[in-house]
Amino acid sequence: MVMAGGDGAAGGEPGLGVTPRAREEWARHWRHAGLPGLDLLRARYVRHSFPRHAHEGYVVCAVTSGVEEVGLRQGTVRGGRGGIIMINPEVAHSARAGAPEGWTYATLYPSSGLVAGIAEEITGLRGTPGFDRTVAEDPHLGHLITEVHRAAEAGDALAADSLLRLLVARLLRRYGGPLPSRTPRSAGARTAARARTVLEERMAAPPSLERLAEELGTGPFALLRAFRDAYGMPPHTWLTDARVRRARRLLEAGSAPADAAVAVGFTDQPHLNRHFTRIVGVPPGAYRRERAAQPGGTQAADDGRLTPGARTYKTAEGTGS
């Protein structure tokens, strides 16, 4: 367990020209064109909480103030200032503030391919690399995470990429190990995998739990238990997460939020806005604008002030796009 320290750590403010007010939430979720395979999030959350979800790639974050609570299948862990949080691909988790002041953090989302390439080059790990713990008190590596952000925000892709690879290499050496195989072995796991395939293929018009179980030759409660055991969440929660993932890809390809909402099966854009913002941390419109923006330069923040190279979404002022 890593407990909280004070405020004011590096990476604890949204950017030059933006000064957070008391209890204000802000976030920037973006990607640098010169850093393929990496998403970045820098944020402060107080009331916002992330529902149970999972990521296709890895999550590595440095908590720079306050306390973040991460809910996992095996229990809840807490990371405070000086702590780093590491989550492997497809691990279901939730997150929320663990202190009244919330938490501020700098997060990196390296893809599975990026981490695998680094592991193959510099470690002796066999199989798929992963982290053997979720929280560690490691201020030095936490500082390195914030330095990756600073270099990317300054438009220095060479420095950001170099620091990122150094960071991942050190993380794997200190906290790394091979991940267990995900090949379904039990009958329940195979049924859950088949259910997942059906939900992916019929995302816009999924069957009910009873109908899905009937199609797979099992009972609703048996399917519910098998799916939760396999993926850490029930089918309806997994489906919401999967819809948001697909919406992200559509937004990155240039789709409007309203079109993405319909394509993935949400009833309307406000429905997408609500679930997207809860899971990703920013609304779909802000997410899409960041993907369309050119790296570097100065853009207007959502409140009209200027942030070098950033559009900072202020969650306390609403969740619209």
UniProtKB/TrEMBL annotation:
Keywords: DNA-binding, Transcription, Transcription regulation
Location of the HTH araC/xylS-type domain: 193-290
Region of interest (Disordered), ranges: 289-321
Pfam families: AraC_binding (PF02311), HTH_18 (PF12833)
Coiled-coil intervals, chain numbering: none
Domain of life of the native organism: Bacteria
Protein name, as recorded: Transcriptional regulator
The organism of origin for this protein: Streptomyces kronopolitis
